[in-house]
Design the sequence.
C-alpha cells in the first residue's frame, strides 16, 4: 500500500428541457482497496436514456466490484437492457475506471470519448489494446498511478458542446485537453475540476445543452490527515485528555467554538487573539492561536460549512462563495473539502446553558446533528471520517 | 481605552456584528484609533447577558438598539477633548 488516494468528483448537465440526465456515474468502493467508477451514457435523452445508463452503470460496477470478468459484464448488459422501440437497439456507452490499491488504474472504454489522462499537468498518451466482445469494440488500458495523475472521463455531450454555434465541429478533444491542462495546475479538487469542465460545456451550448453532458474526474493525491475540535467535553475533568489526544494527531488542527478555543489556549499556554474582521460575511470573525491552524466560532460557522457541503455534493453552485473568501466557514471548507482526505472529529458534548434559550436558533441537539450530517457529507465526498465524543 | 466585544455564538446572534460596526465607525469617523483600542473575545462567560462588552474592565450588556446611546453617554465624554 502507498499513501495515495483517489479524489473522485463528477457533474452532469441535462439536455435542454429534460428533468433527468441520460448519463449516470456509479462509484463502488470495495474493502480490498479497489474502486470501480462507471460513467454510462444512455441512448437518447430523458427517462429512457436515464434508465439505460443507470442500469448499465449499476450492473457493471456491481459485477466488476464482485470480481467478475469484463466479458460477463458486457454480455449481461447486452442481455438485460430493454430494447429501444424507436431504434430497435439496446444501447448505452460506458467508461470504466478501476483503481486498484491506489497503484494501478484499469481503463475500459466502449464508445465514450476517450479518457484524458493528465500527468504532471500534461496530456499523457497511454497505450490501449482493442478487444472485441459480442461485436463491440472495447478499448482497454492499464496505467501505473503517480501522484497528481488526473483521469477525465466524459460523455459525448462534452466534445459535442457548441456544435454549429460556437464551433463547427464541437469542442475538440485537443481543446478540452488544453483547457484542462490549464485548470489542473490550480490544484482544484476533482469535483471542482468536473464542475469547471461541464460549466464550460454549458456555456458553449449557450445554456441550452443539445445533449446530456457529464464529466467524471479522478485525481490521484497524497493522503492528508486533518483534525477538528468542536465543543468542550461534557465533563470538565476530560479537558486535558481531549486536548492531548487532539494535539497529538498528525495533520492540521482546526478548532471551532469560543469556549473550546479558550480551553485549547489554556492547554497550550498561548494567547487566543480574536480578530474583528467580518470579511464581508455574516459569519463571526476568526481568531488566531499559536499551534492551531484555524480557530473559528462554533455552531453558526459549522452550520454554514454544512450548507456548503450539501451544495458541493449537489449542484456545486456556491463553490465561488467559499473558495475565495476568508471568513471562518469558507476557510474550514477549503481545508476540509479540498485539502483533507482523513478527518478526525473531536466533539465535546458539553451543553452551553446560554444556547438553551428558545429564542435562539441554536441548541444542543442542533449541534450534535450538525456533526452527524457534516461527517455524512464528508464521507460522501470520499473522505475517511472518525468521530470521537467526549 | 480598550473596548472588548464578545463575538461568540450567542452574542453574534444577538447582534455583536452591528455593535462592532457602530464602534469602529465611531472610532474611524473621529480618528480615535490611538485613543480607543477595539478588540474581540470569544466568550465572557455571561452569554445570557449578551451582547457582552467591556470598557477596560467594566462590563456592559448592549443590544444593537442601545449602542448609539452607549457611545454617546459612555464613550464620547471620555474622549471629548480629542473629538474635533
Sequence:
Amino acid at each position: 500500500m502507498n499513501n495515495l488516494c483517489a479524489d473522485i468528483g463528477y457533474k452532469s448537465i441535462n439536455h435542454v428541457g429534460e428533468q433527468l440526465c441520460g448519463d449516470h456515474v456509479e462509484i463502488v468502493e470495495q474493502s480490498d482497496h479497489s474502486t470501480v467508477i462507471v460513467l454510462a451514457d444512455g441512448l437518447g435523452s430523458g427517462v429512457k436514456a436515464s434508465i439505460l445508463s443507470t442500469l448499465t452503470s449499476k450492473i457493471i460496477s456491481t459485477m466488476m466490484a464482485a470480481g467478475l470478468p469484463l466479458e460477463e459484464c458486457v454480455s449481461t448488459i447486452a442481455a438485460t437492457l430493454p430494447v429501444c422501440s424507436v431504434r430497435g437497439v439496446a444501447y448505452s456507452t460506458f467508461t470504466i475506471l478501476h483503481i486498484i490499491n491506489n497503484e494501478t488504474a484499469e481503463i475500459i472504454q466502449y464508445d465514450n470519448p476517450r479518457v484524458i489522462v493528465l500527468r504532471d499537468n500534461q496530456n499523457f498518451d497511454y497505450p490501449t489494446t482493442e478487444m472485441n466482445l459480442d461485436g463491440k469494440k472495447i478499448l482497454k488500458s492499464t496505467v501505473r498511478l503517480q501522484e497528481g495523475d488526473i483521469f477525465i472521463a466524459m460523455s459525448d455531450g462534452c466534445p459535442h458542446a457548441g456544435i454549429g454555434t460556437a464551433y463547427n465541429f464541437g469542442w475538440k478533444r485537443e481543446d478540452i485537453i488544453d483547457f484542462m491542462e490549464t485548470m489542473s495546475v490550480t490544484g482544484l479538487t476533482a469535483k471542482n475540476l468536473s464542475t469547471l469542465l461541464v460549466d464550460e460545456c454549458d456555456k458553449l451550448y449557450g445554456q441550452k445543452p443539445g445533449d446530456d453532458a457529464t464529466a467524471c474526474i479522478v485525481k490521484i493525491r497524497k493522503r492528508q490527515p486533518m483534525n477538528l475540535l468542536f465543543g468542550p467535553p461534557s465533563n470538565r475533568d476530560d479537558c486535558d485528555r481531549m486536548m492531548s489526544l487532539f494535539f497529538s494527531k498528525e495533520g492540521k488542527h482546526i478548532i471551532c467554538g469560543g469556549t473550546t478555543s479558550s480551553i485549547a489556549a489554556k492547554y497550550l499556554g498561548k494567547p487566543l487573539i480574536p480578530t474583528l474582521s467580518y470579511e464581508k460575511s455574516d459569519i463571526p470573525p476568526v481568531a488566531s492561536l499559536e499551534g492551531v491552524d484555524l480557530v473559528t466560532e462554533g455552531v453558526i460557522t459549522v452550520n454554514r460549512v454544512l450548507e456548503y457541503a450539501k451544495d458541493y455534493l449537489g449542484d456545486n453552485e456556491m463553490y465561488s462563495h467559499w473558495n475565495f473568501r476568508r471568513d471562518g466557514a469558507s476557510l474550514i471548507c477549503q481545508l476540509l473539502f479540498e485539502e483533507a482526505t482523513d478527518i478526525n472529529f473531536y466533539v465535546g458534548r458539553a451543553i452551553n446553558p446560554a444556547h438553551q434559550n428558545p429564542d435562539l436558533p441554536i441548541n444542543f441537539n442542533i449541534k450534535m446533528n450538525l456533526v452527524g450530517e457534516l461527517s455524512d457529507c464528508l464521507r460522501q465526498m470520499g473522505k475517511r471520517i472518525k468521530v470521537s465524543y467526549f | 481605552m480598550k473596548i472588548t466585544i464578545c463575538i461568540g455564538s450567542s452574542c453574534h446572534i444577538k447582534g455583536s456584528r452591528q455593535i462592532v460596526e457602530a464602534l469602529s465607525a465611531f472610532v474611524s469617523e473621529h480618528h480615535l484609533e490611538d485613543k480607543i483600542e477595539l478588540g474581540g473575545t470569544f466568550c465572557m462567560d455571561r452569554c445570557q447577558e449578551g451582547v457582552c462588552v467591556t470598557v477596560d474592565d467594566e462590563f456592559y450588556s448592549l443590544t444593537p438598539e442601545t449602542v448609539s446611546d452607549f457611545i454617546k453617554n459612555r464613550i464620547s465624554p471620555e474622549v471629548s477633548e480629542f473629538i474635533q
About this structure: The mean pLDDT of chain B is 87. The CA atoms of residues 6 and 39 of chain B lie 9 Å apart.
